[in-house]
Amino acid sequence: MTGNLYQPIHSEVVDIIDESPTIKSFVVAPEREFKFETGQFVELTLPGEGEAPFTPSSSPKQTEQMEITIMKAGRVTALLHECKKGQKVGIRGPYGKGYPVDDFVGKEVYIVGGGVGLAPIRSLFLTLVDRVKDFKSVVCRFGAKTPDDFIYKKALFGPWQKIDGVDMKLTVDEAKGNWDSHVGVVTTILKPDDVNVANAVAIVCGPPIMMKFATSKLLEFGFGFEQIYLSMEKNMSCGVGKCGHCMIGKYYVCKDGPVFRYDQIKDYPNIWD
Amino acid sequence: MQTVFISKLKPFLDAVAAQMDLYVPKSSGAHYVYGRYDPAAETDVEFNNIRMCTPVKEFLFPLRELAAVFPEPLEPEEIEPFAVFGLKECDLRSIEILDKVFLEAEFEDPLYIARRQKMFIISSDCFEPGESCFCNVLGGQPFARAGFDLNVSQVEDGFVIEAGSQKGEDFVQKHSELFTDVSDGALVERDQNRAEAQKQLEQNNAQFKLDAPVKDVVGPSYDSDVYDQEAQSCVECQACTRVCPTCHCFYLYDTKQKDYFGKMKMWDSCMRLTYAEVAGGANPRKALGDRLRHRLMHKFSYFLDRYDIDMCVGCGRCVDAEAGGVDIRVVLKKLNEELKDKGRKKAEAKK
């Protein structure tokens, strides 16, 4: 037996980065080395207040600290946004199955992300660019409501655009300030010739409505169900496939996901709700 | 394993109670509930004809318990050995099902294990199945096959006691002075009683018999309208999931105490509206019919896929507890009829 699976590891918030008006990244240092695979998630406890699931946005190579990007969406996340450096928190995990990066070797990796969905994608992106030569290409299409709503602005508007082997385009629903790039929801910058579909995989992460439309666009381009990887957001509570809250059909998102191939879940209704 | 005889229950239960806390069935209205056995006060011990109203999961997975403590880790609660008398075959099957979840390799639940290891199980035969009992529809029967430490069968002159585990065997050995050899007559009588109870179950549930294994009835029913129709009489009381001995959904929440923070684990119900809702407000099962479908598909299809056993023992507790009008036997039968109709139409189309 491996101890109490409900007991979080003591951790501390060592830095907080304002990403957008509603999103902050918390740099969390667990008291011992913490390993995870990109796309896996953790349960973050604010002691006495509550616990919520998040996919770390940092590279899995970083095992002493992890970054967790959090949008203010409910009670616990609102309280987390009030926290200051030095806040004691708890971490359980890592849980579930992440992105099968090794299966992407030799392929074009087509990443579609929106809003706070860029959080898990950042971890994946850092993992991919670390060994970028292993992939045919890394093609990113990211969207946000306004330029201000993009998270990881510094990297996104600068160095990430200049990496060899990475093709990145950004769009906003509504232009503000000196935005001179594309305007329109993220599906409007997805083009059939972005990648060679026959040798590509697609990764989609973002708000449910965006994932729904991005997926149907990918299917239009000829992507097979099994070529599309989705990060599902459900109510993961226990993290170990017991409590039942996160079930989609027969799957426990916490244990069988959170990353699913579309063919696994496509026949269940309401997956986007 | 040994089978022995005793003419009265009290000396037997006193011997158990001398070793550990013992819970026994006590009448409460039309039902039985568990109560602590007090050797000094009890004169007449009740022998429950059917399962008690309270599900056995209460002993292994309490309604609410402390799951973790912050900042100091939780010292595992010292669980003392305890015994429960009057569990039925359906209860034992429900333990088998819960074991799959909470003893799963790599994801063992230490809180469950602590209680499970200390539980001494004394089952007994059902001699008069209740109106809502339908274990036979799902492959069950009115007497225990396995999973008990001791099993008690009532016969005319006393009780036949069978050991089903090393722990049970040791108990019989240790208290050999209480027991006598079992006569062939008593064994014949026990088997007759069992057959009689089985017959009664078959009669009671003739109208609910399914034409195919339950997984084949429920598995393909995803698009069935039966769920929405049946859900119309559901009042969302969630009693079905609370009394269900196999339902094991729970909810983790955090509390502030005077000198520590606690993470609590509490029963939850998939029939609750916001059960699957996320912070952003999305909820894949807003409609009651969707929740009823999920509950049944989980029991008879998803769980089976994962653990190779279905998640209903046919105890009928949900039928008794239901405040609305949903009867799981009726839902299954309607799905069965729908499947037959589909089959018939297919066959006709072929012609």
Description:
Chain A has helices at residues 75-82, 118-130, 153-157, 208-220, 253-256, 262-265, and strands at residues 9-20, 23-30, 41-46, 50-54, 66-71, 88-95, 108-114, 137-144, 166-172, 182-183, 200-205, 228-231, 247-248, 251-252, 259-261. Chain A is an alpha/beta fold and 273 residues long. Chain B is an alpha/beta fold. Chain B has two domains: 3-208, no CATH class; 214-341, no CATH class. Helix content of chain B is 38%, strand content 19%. Chain B has helices at residues 9-19, 57-60, 89-102, 110-118, 166-174, 184-204, 214-218, 226-231, 239-243, 288-307, 317-321, 328-350; strands at 3-6, 21-28, 31-36, 64-70, 82-87, 119-124, 150-155, 158-163, 180-181, 250-256, 261-267. In chain B, the strands form two sheets. Chain B has an eight-stranded mixed sheet, sandwiched between helices. In chain B, strand 2 and strand 3 form a beta hairpin.
